[in-house]
Inverse folding.
């Protein structure tokens, strides 16, 4: 469920990304329950949060898969993703 701020906003920010209209996020898929494969689909809490962030500002989500956890932090520096995300949590 989107917050009332997101649902009712008309002046959402413009976010500059590597590829126009796409939010590329580096992700390690062996991090259940945050991001993992369920059958052939990537699911998890991180995927849900990233969609909630991307969709209202008109971005599609593209996950850049990394075979090792440490790899997610190098991809943005190389210009291969906009940022890395792992274990997004709210405490």
């Amino acid at each position: 469920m989107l917050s009332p701020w997101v649902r009712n906003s008309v002046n959402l920010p413009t976010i500059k990304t590597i590829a126009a209209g796409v939010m590329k996020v580096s992700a390690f898929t062996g991090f259940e329950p945050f991001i993992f494969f369920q059958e052939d689909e990537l699911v998890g809490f991180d995927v849900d949060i990233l969609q909630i962030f991307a969709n209202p500002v008109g971005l599609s989500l593209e996950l850049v898969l990394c075979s090792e956890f440490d790899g997610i932090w190098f991809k943005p520096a190389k210009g291969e993703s906009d940022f890395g995300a792992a274990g997004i949590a709210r405490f």
